[in-house]
Design goal:
about 130 residues, mainly alpha, 7 helices, about 0% strand
Amino acid sequence: MKYVFLYAFIEYCIVDFGTIRPVDMKKNILPTTLPKEFYKFFWDTDASTIDPGHNKMYVISRLLDIGNIQALRWLIGTYNTDDIIKTIKSKRDLSSRSATFWAKFFHINREDVVCLTEPFLTQRKTLWQY
């Protein structure tokens, strides 16, 4: 119940699929470079060399985890929902907080999200207890 306002805000900001979806997505053509304003989210790599079409799951997980509203608009407009849901379910490097939020947002069962399963959560706590 405490996330209701947050869900409504996020939907208001990013999820107008009819107007955000670019024309090229209809042809399944993904961009070959990241927009420069998103380089700051990829501080650990050379962001200019990341191909959003080839590294889909990496780009999606990074922007879902630490992206801003502008990055989320681009993400929703660039990738189809199936790719985003597949990434949420399979990536292990999403934070627990982000994974829980996006699982609820996309109506994914918690048990289907790898980084929210008990063995992974227990391992994460033993490696980093804070």
